[in-house]
Amino acid sequence: MWVELGKVGAPYGVNGWVRVESFTDPIESLLGYRVWQLSRSADERAAWKVLEGKTHGKGLIVRLEGVPDCDGAARLRGARIEVPRADLPPTRRREHYQIDLIGLKATNEEGIELGVVSEFVAAPEQTLMVVIGQREYWIPAVPEHLLKVSWDTGELRVRWPAEETAGGAVGPQRGD
Q: What is the value of pTM for the model shown?
């Protein structure tokens, strides 16, 4: 299983460096992986060795082996940076990788099954977990709402109501 940890951006300079958007926290953790798999689709993936990299503004700049100039860097623009799931460091207690939660059955505190975790979406204030069942629920991916993971049953217990609220949004009303 491959985990996306970043995205290649525009070339940086004329010597083959590229801008990189890192999805790791802290962002420079991405530089700890010395070989990246760059992909544009599920069937197109190639290994690229990281020669050097550093933080630059809100992202990173990186030099990859075999990318000698701006033209070579431009060809990589838009590629996803992936690593094998097995290469990720172990999590601490009550920490989980988002990729591991996808596919779990989400059940609320009342025991009502809301659906299955389908994806995570980065929003301006926080990451949202999308659960799809009879309805679609967008649940803030924070400890207040994500209560317990049971790997034995493949279930994620959440603090979230099952009923639809005013305005078509699913979840608590403002001020709750």
A: 0.73
